[in-house]
Amino acid sequence: MKLKTLVLFLSLLISSSVLQSQQKSIDLSPLENSKIVLLGEQTHYDGATFDAKVDIIKKLHQEFGFNIIVFESGLYDNYKAYQLYQSNKEDISIYNQSVFPIWTETTAFKTLLDYISKHSEMKILGFDNQESFLFKDYFIPDLKTLLDENGLSLSDEIYTIIEKTLIYRDIDIYVNNKTDSLALYKTFKTIDYQLSKVKTKTLDSEIIKQTFKGVVSDFDTSLKLAQKEKVYLQNPERQTNGKELNLSATTIS
Known about the structure:
Strand content: 5-15%
Helix content: 40-55%
Number of domains: 2
Shape: globular
Number of helices: 11
Number of strands: 4
Order of helices and strands: EHEHEHHHEHHHHHH
Largest sheet: 4 strands, parallel
Radius of gyration: 20 Å
């Protein structure tokens, strides 16, 4: 099956007024041969924009066969939701636990789920490293299974550290303790090394590997902010005209 993807995220490229005024007459034909279409929004919690985007999603699916919707939500959360839904262990509402509330709390999201439930070829996935409910419940068991299947293992102590730091985000003991912080990052390297020894290269294994890297990065940012260290934007030169940018915990909302 040919895969064509829609990515939903926060962007300043398109406004709700444009979507509302043009969604019924907008010409989507230039997107016919595209593999990926980005659907941004000027700000989160803009219900009118999301209503319009759901209509556009339906049209792109019906007219050009777009069949994957990727939300700015947890990579692992949404992959796990997809697994549970496809295996009939959960119904379509499982995506209410994997996609961020900025979308799931809208009527349009329910409309989207109803539509997807009637089209089995469509999938919802995520690309964010901020994980949530399903990550808390399933990541460690999935990590253990992956390592066991490849003859690898981690100590119970390390799994406890993963649970405290990456699952429940307990950073307090590391904020002012350099010794413990160094030990923690050494543990993260041990886990990463074990994952690098996984021989099987499947979608499941790659999702686990990338999720671990993503949540460690997210934890690292949170810890640095708590320690009042400098945190750089992804593209600092473009966004600050080359000037060094120092973000503290008080400047991040």
